[in-house]
User: What shape does this take?
Amino acid sequence: MDHPDQLRDRTIDMAMALAAEQGWHDVSLNTVAERLGITLADIAAEFRDRDAIADAWFTRALAAMLAPPPVQFGDLPASARAEMMILRWFRAQSAHARVAGQILLTRLWPSHPHHWLPMVFSLSRLVHWWLDAARIEHTGLRRMAEEVRLTALLLRAITAWQADARAGEADALPRTANVLRRGSAWLDR
Assistant: This one.
């Protein structure tokens, strides 16, 4: 029998693998359970639904972004630190970047308004973690302005990330890095 953490990880991995085969919107938790040789009750004990599995996938990417940075990280300009940290988030999802994009798009469907507000909060939390990971520690109005600008930059970068994934460049991320590099230069001023 799996340790709960192993079951969680195997469930996430299987759901993402199925989504890579057939698309996120067609992933059935019955099929995930069958392929893993477990029951739906086993999955329900770990995840409230398929969206919770997606959230766990994005949490893995956040953990990759928050891993300790290189030793000389603090010597880099703010724009380079910001780019390095968010690229970690994108690269952590490289194996299933297209599926991650499908998850985000599915949550934007007009028939899914219950996802819209949570997505705003998730995006805000990601930007806050991004600022902290990049060691950009301003306060007050300056911090608020950075949050707004980085949120807009992140949305542009997600679009570039999906273009990189469609082009088979989910590891290299040339478009994504270019958007981030151009869009974060203002952090050094």
